[in-house]
């Protein structure tokens, strides 16, 4: 009588259980580091917080509410106004946002994009902005006070920008920080980070500043290099102003 087949049947479950035990032991020992090391092709975590602030010690994750709170507090303090309570937040986050990116370190805060669907398309108001863009201007004024604004006029603008510019639709605002200097660069990044943190609420589509752009259409929320048509032109490179525009709505 051949007894080899029943023996093999009995050993297969045992071998499987041994392999499963070894795998579980490896996951217990390496699991946290292994999971944290899983990243997209761009180096960002596959899963993580909605927003991230890069500090000298590394990235610190924030949810969107925390990002809105931090950027608003930093903006208000920069102009000497009363700021909301941030006592529960990591001081390294607030310090980094207040100081702005150093040299070529890149933007400090990023938030995952979220381009809302089903928004109605809007027409120009008397100010030359769509209601959506007007709401952004109002929100900026409440936090930053009076600013040097451009890129829109009563009745709309029809020249001075690229052929497909959102300025012609009344969906874009330029906020100027002139002349180009380290202090104005710092102030510009305080605004740019604030806009990104509030992009979902204000239905913002693009933020461009200092050779960088952020887009609501890019779900990972990273900033990207902005390729200006004329690298020698500080205006086209958005070194002297922050550009912000809002979603079109409708089918566009």
* Structural class computed from helices and strand pairing: alpha+beta
Number of domains: 1
Shape: globular
Question: What count of helical segments does DSSP give?
Answer: 6
Classify the beta-strand content into a percent band.
Answer: 15-25%
- Which runs of at least 5 residues are low in confidence (pLDDT < 50)? 1-11, 26-46
* Sheet of most strands: 6 strands, antiparallel
**Radius of gyration using CA atoms only:** 25 Å
Helix content: 25-40%
Structure description:
It is a single chain. The protein is an alpha+beta fold and 252 residues long. The protein has one domain. The chain is 37% helix and 15% strand. The protein is built from six helices and nine strands. It has helices at residues 4-37, 64-78, 91-99, 131-144, 182-197, 199-202; strands at residues 51-55, 58-62, 109-111, 149-150, 172-176, 204-209, 212-215, 224-225, 241-246. Strands 4-5-9-6-7-8 form a six-stranded antiparallel beta sheet. Strands 2-1-3 form a three-stranded antiparallel beta sheet. A hairpin with a 2-residue loop joins strand 6 (204-209) and strand 7. The longest helix is centred in the first third of the chain and has 34 residues, at 4-37. Residues 1-11 and 26-46 have low confidence and may be disordered.
């Amino acid at each position: 009588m051949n007894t080899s087949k029943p023996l093999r049947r009995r050993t297969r479950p045992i071998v499987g259980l041994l392999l499963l035990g070894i795998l579980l032991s490896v996951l217990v020992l390496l699991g946290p580091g292994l999971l944290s090391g899983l990243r997209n092709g761009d180096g960002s975590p596959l899963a993580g917080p909605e927003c991230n602030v890069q500090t000298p010690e590394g990235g610190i994750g924030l949810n969107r509410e925390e990002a809105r709170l931090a950027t608003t507090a930093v903006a208000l303090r920069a102009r000497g106004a009363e700021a909301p309570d941030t006592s529960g937040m990591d001081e390294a986050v607030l310090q980094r946002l207040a100081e702005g990116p150093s040299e070529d370190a890149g933007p400090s805060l990023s938030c995952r994009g979220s381009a809302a669907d089903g928004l109605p398309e809007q027409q120009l108001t008397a100010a030359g902005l769509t209601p959506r863009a007007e709401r952004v201007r109002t929100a900026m004024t409440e936090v930053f006070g009076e600013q040097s604004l451009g890129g829109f006029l009563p009745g709309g603008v029809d020249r001075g920008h690229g052929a497909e510019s959102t300025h012609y639709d009344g969906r874009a605002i330029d906020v100027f920080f002139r002349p180009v200097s380290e202090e104005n660069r710092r102030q510009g990044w305080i605004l740019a980070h604030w806009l990104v943190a509030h992009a979902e609420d204000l239905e913002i589509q693009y933020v461009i500043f200092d050779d960088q752009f952020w887009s609501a259409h890019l779900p990972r929320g990273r900033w990207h290099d902005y390729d200006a048509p004329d690298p020698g032109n500080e205006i086209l490179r958005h070194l002297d102003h922050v550009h912000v525009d809002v979603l079109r709505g409708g089918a566009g």
